[in-house]
UniProtKB/TrEMBL annotation:
Keyword terms of this UniProt record: Cell membrane, Membrane, Transmembrane, Transmembrane helix, Transport
Membrane-topology descriptor: Multi-pass membrane protein
Subcellular location: Cell membrane
Protein species of origin: Actinoallomurus vinaceus
Pfam family, one: MFS_1
Membrane-crossing segments per the record: 21-44, 56-76, 83-102, 108-133, 154-170, 176-198, 219-242, 254-275, 282-301, 313-339, 351-369, 375-393
Protein name per the record: MFS transporter
Gene3D superfamilies for this protein: MFS general substrate transporter like domains (1.20.1250.20)
Lineage: superkingdom: Bacteria
Length: 413
């Protein structure tokens, strides 16, 4: 049983890559918050594209961007750290430049911009986790990953708030926001690169070569595709239910959307530290149980009718966010703990592939299930998440088996 980590802000910043890297993450997240929530709006209002065309281009960009993840994993396993983080930021500068250069009605330039933005957005989480795993170890690393998520969500929220205020300026304001976003990415890339952090990849043990280059984590990766649906519940599922079934004021959806990052910023580090006394796999399975319970709570809330249903859904959304916080604090930490140092990059890249795929398909799955009624939507999500939690809890750690066989082989030699 692990000892509970204590929160020490200076140590947390140091374990997260140091002050300059923390500023880089904040600036990068601020720029992302300025543009990402309004990218669809940019395509529709500035470039005069149809909403469906814009949406398809954005989705295609995210999906195609996933193809780059194996290369990112190999790059990380050659020892690169801050360089990969900086590259993930610089590639988004290219995306913003294409966005600004695209003339009205030009869908292909917008699609290319979405692709480059998608590559950066997909590559950053794996590169960041690898950098933190190089600086910090054990439960300090878990707390550092949680701290970085807190900082990122806070900066994203500030950026989105500033962008919302500026939207009154119309298309000119949207172009200005895109330009500021590009400058923010450029500044963040320079700060991240200035950290000059890399590692010398260790040679894999002979036994690992015989059994494969990385732990398979099949159940974990498959479960993660379902787990990440929780990230789109406040943005897609709940507004869809509140608007189409309850005809509730948009203010309810807005309040739930705002409450989510506020809770993440407030609770991510304390909850991660509190649960550090348990194994990461146990905590990840627990997050699935909490998420499934929240989905069943949404199902029960929809049966209350228009009077009590809307506030009940808002209340249950807090439980869903707590499940998300537990999931986010344990999933990446588990991958970094399972993967040997020489294949950490590839393991994180595979994990990001499952995350990106889940985020890409979840809007389509949610919107397809919703018309069939609350039982189809929330019942299916609860059942799939419970099944995923069970798979996570029962999966055997390949790395542990390999090291055990290696030790026995050494003892017998």
């Amino acid at each position: 049983m692990a000892t509970t980590t204590k929160i020490q802000p200076r140590a947390l910043v140091r374990a997260s890559g140091g002050p300059r890297y923390a500023v880089a993450v904040a600036v990068d997240s601020l720029g992302t918050g300025l543009l990402r929530p309004f990218l669809l709006l940019y395509g529709v209002t500035v470039l005069r594209l149809s909403a469906s065309t814009t949406g398809i281009a954005m989705t295609a960009g995210v999906v195609v961007a996933l193809v780059c993840m194996p290369a990112v994993g190999r790059w990380l396993d050659r020892g690169a750290r801050s360089t990969v983080v900086a590259a993930s930021m610089l590639v988004r500068v290219v995306g913003v430049a294409l966005l600004l250069a695209a003339p009205a009605g030009h869908v292909w330039l917008f699609a290319m911009a979405a692709l480059f933005l998608g590559i950066g957005n997909q590559a950053w989480p794996a590169a960041h986790a690898a950098l933190v795993a190089t600086v910090a170890h054990g439960r300090e690393r878990d707390a550092a990953l949680a701290g970085a998520r807190t900082l990122r969500n806070a900066a994203l929220g500030v950026g989105a708030l500033l962008a919302t205020v500026c939207l009154a300026g119309g298309t000119t304001a949207l172009r200005a926001l895109a330009a500021v976003t590009g400058l923010a990415y450029l500044a963040a890339a320079a700060l991240a690169w200035s950290v000059h952090l890399r590692t010398h990849p260790a040679a894999p043990p002979a036994r690992d070569r015989a059994d494969g280059p990385a732990p398979r984590m099949r159940a974990l990766l498959a479960a993660n595709v379902i787990y990440v649906f929780c990230l789109n519940v406040p943005e897609i599922a709940l507004p869809l239910v509140l608007v189409t079934q309850f005809h509730a004021s948009p203010a309810w959806s807005g309040a739930i959307f705002v409450a989510n990052p506020v809770l993440v910023v407030t609770l991510q580090v304390p909850v991660t530290v509190l649960l550090s006394r348990f194994s990461r796999r146990t905590v990840l399975a627990l997050s699935g149980v909490v998420l499934a319970a929240s989905y069943l709570g949404f199902l029960a809330a929809t049966s209350l009718g228009h009077g009590w249903g809307t506030p009940a859904i808002a209340t249950v959304s807090v439980v869903c966010t707590i499940g998300e916080i537990i999931y986010a604090g344990s999933a990446t930490a588990l991958v970094t703990a399972l993967a040997p140092a020489h294949v950490l990059g590839r393991a994180l890249a595979r994990f990001q592939l499952s995350t990106g795929f889940g985020l890409a398909v979840s809007p389509a799955v949610i919107t397809a299930l919703a018309p069939h009624g609350p039982a189809a939507l929330w019942g299916s999500l609860a059942a799939a998440t419970l099944l995923s939690a069970s798979a996570v809890a029962t999966e055997k750690d390949q790395g542990t088996r390999l090291s055990g066989r290696w030790r026995r082989a050494r003892a017998g030699s």
